[in-house]
């Protein structure tokens, strides 16, 4: 059987995604109940990080440990990856020794190339273009708080970045309507806008975009790698700050999400994370459970499920 990878949400069918996030909720309950479930004894996860991380590193490493396996943190500073060993060679060698690999890097093409030469599943743990693992946790969190997201309205506020592109793919896979309110010049990738035009639209006025929304989401104004643009971006994005009063214009059942880390006083007001409509802490914790479900799915032929 050919190896399955998870480079974007489009690598899994809508049915597989739905099953996966339900399994994530089950794993969350098992973990909270103190149940020991170790299907990955003797298995190893390779974790390649070319960008910083708190949540992604801790959730993958802890998840693998809870499953009875082992995780290795690989930084370009300490491996030959940082000294120019070709991706093709690194992929062949690393995948000959570990069972599954996650990669956080800059160019999306790099994870695609790694996957092409890998004999084990590759997980995209964030590139400049997509962050699909975050969306698993986000969808799980929505289901846990509100049930199905099908036919709901989701509003993205801010930069048309990797998280926004992932929400566009999620709109297609989970069947919701996505409205994007982004400043001129920071709109989402036009090819993706065309591809997902049946479920994604741009909205001029950010306050209009919030109207009737069931979920409002934002992210940092300058992503990793864009630090030098921080000041220019702060000026352009100032009207796009998400506040409790913006949430008041939405559906009464609206939720607020942010992948974190958040910048209070920039993309969110100082009080937003304390608002009862914010579910960012559950969202962050669900990275652990969603990625455990993902690893279990990708290695299902090698393990015994319980
Ligand atoms: N949301 C997220 O991916 O966080 P980290 O950058 O801390 O991993
Ligand atoms: N868009 C952000 C997400 C961080 C989790 C970045 O790429 O830096």
Automatic annotation (TrEMBL):
Can you tell me which residues bind L-ornithine?
162, 219, 223-224
Q: Where in the cell is it found?
A: Cytoplasm
Keywords, sorted A to Z: Cytoplasm, Transferase
Quick one: which residues bind carbamoyl phosphate?
A: 53-56, 80, 104, 131-134, 259-260, 287
One Pfam family hit: OTCace_N
Listed SUPFAM superfamilies: Aspartate/ornithine carbamoyltransferase
Pinpoint the Aspartate/ornithine carbamoyltransferase carbamoyl-P binding domain residues.
Answer: 4-144
Q: What is its main location?
A: cytoplasm
Q: Which InterPro entries match?
A: Asp/Orn_carbamoyltranf_P-bd (IPR006132), Asp/Orn_carbamoylTrfase (IPR006130), Asp/Orn_carbamoylTrfase_sf (IPR036901), Asp_carbamoyltransf_Asp/Orn-bd (IPR006131), Orn/put_carbamltrans (IPR002292), OTCase_ArgI (IPR024904)
What EC number(s) has UniProt assigned to this enzyme? 2.1.3.3
Q: Which GO terms describe its molecular function?
A: amino acid binding; ornithine carbamoyltransferase activity
Residue intervals of the Aspartate/ornithine carbamoyltransferase Asp/Orn-binding domain: 152-297
Pathway the protein contributes to: Amino-acid biosynthesis; L-arginine biosynthesis; L-arginine from L-ornithine and carbamoyl phosphate: step 1/3
Q: Which reaction does it catalyse?
A: carbamoyl phosphate + L-ornithine = L-citrulline + phosphate + H(+)
Gene Ontology cellular component? cytoplasm
Give the record's GO biological process terms: citrulline biosynthetic process; L-arginine biosynthetic process via ornithine
Quote the HAMAP family the UniProt record gives.
OTCase
The Swiss-Prot or TrEMBL record describes its family as follows: Belongs to the aspartate/ornithine carbamoyltransferase superfamily. OTCase family.
Q: What is this protein called?
A: Ornithine carbamoyltransferase
Q: Tell me what gene encodes this.
A: argF
């Amino acid at each position: 059987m050919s190896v399955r990878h998870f480079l974007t949400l489009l690598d899994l069918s809508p049915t597989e995604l739905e099953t996966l996030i339900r399994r994530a909720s089950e794993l969350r309950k098992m973990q909270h109940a103190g149940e020991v479930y170790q299907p990955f004894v003797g298995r190893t996860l390779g974790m390649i990080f070319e960008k910083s991380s708190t949540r992604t590193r801790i959730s993958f490493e802890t998840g693998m440990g809870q499953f009875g396996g082992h995780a290795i943190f690989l930084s370009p500073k300490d491996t030959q990856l940082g000294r120019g060993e070709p991706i093709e060679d690194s992929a062949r060698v690393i995948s000959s020794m570990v069972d599954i690999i996650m990669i956080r890097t800059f160019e999306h093409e790099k994870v695609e190339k790694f996957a092409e030469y890998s004999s084990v599943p590759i997980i995209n743990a964030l590139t400049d273009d997509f962050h699909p693992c975050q969306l698993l946790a986000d969808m799980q969190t929505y289901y846990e708080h509100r049930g199905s997201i099908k036919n709901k309205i989701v509003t993205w506020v801010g930069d048309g970045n990797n998280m926004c592109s992932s929400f566009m793919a999620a709109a297609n896979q989970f069947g919701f309507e996505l409205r994007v309110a982004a400043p001129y010049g920071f709109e989402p990738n036009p090819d993706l806008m065309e591809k997902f035009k049946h479920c994604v639209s741009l909205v001029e006025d950010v306050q209009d975009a919030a109207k009737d929304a069931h979920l409002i989401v934002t992210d940092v104004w300058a992503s990793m790698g864009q630090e030098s643009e921080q000041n220019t971006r702060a000026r352009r994005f100032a009207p796009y700050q998400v506040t409790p009063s913006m949430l008041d214009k939405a559906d009464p059942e609206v939720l607020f999400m942010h992948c974190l880390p958040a910048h209070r006083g920039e993309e969110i007001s100082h009080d937003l994370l304390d608002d009862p409509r914010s579910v960012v802490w559950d969202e962050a914790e669900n990275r652990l459970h969603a990625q455990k479900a993902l690893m279990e799915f990708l290695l299902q032929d090698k393990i015994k499920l319980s």
